[in-house]
Amino acid sequence: MRSFVIGLKTFSRHQPETFLIIYFFIFMMNLYLGNLNYKVKEGDLEELLSAYGAVTSAKIVKDRETGRSKGFGFVEMENEEEAVKAMTALNGTEYQGRMLVIKEALPKNA
Q1: For 60-85, what is the mean pLDDT?
Q2: pLDDT band at 106; cut points 50, 70, 90
Q3: Tens of pLDDT, residues 13-59
Q4: What is the pTM of this model?
Q5: Is 49 exposed, middle or buried (0-12, 13-18, 19+ CB in 10 A)?
Q6: Backbone φ and ψ of 8, nearest 5°
């Protein structure tokens, strides 16, 4: 989840300066996709999950030396509710010959 704060100042002769804070919450969710076929590409993941909602990004994790897929990746979806629907619908289903594992991704520093 990301939040943005916007401050608006209003001035009046009769009132002291006031400061209004407006919070905008954008509920994004990052999903971990594991047990992927090594031939799956980032575009394949984007296409698979876009049936459930808007996909912000898709990334397959690759070996640094060989450039080959490590069999897992991450997809960020714009809407948390749509991401949960995708996770519920696709976790444990077969995709390109392998049983998908889909979970909410842990933060990088966890």
Answers
A1: 96
A2: confident
A3: 555 544 444 444 557 899 999 999 999 999 999 999 999 999 999 99
A4: 0.74
A5: buried
A6: -125, 130
Return all residues near 32 (Cβ < 8 A) that are at least 6 apart: 72, 73, 74, 101, 102, 103, 104, 105, 106
In 3D space, the residue among 33, 37, 4, 6 whose CA is nearest the CA of residue 20 turns out to be 6
C-alpha–C-alpha distance, residues 76 and 31, integer Å: 6
Q: How confident is the model at residue 109 (pLDDT cuts 50, 70, 90)?
A: confident
* 38 contact partners, CB below 8 Å, separation of at least 6: 68, 69, 71
- Using CA atoms, how far residue 43 sits from 13, 18, 47, 83, in Å, is 58, 49, 6, 17
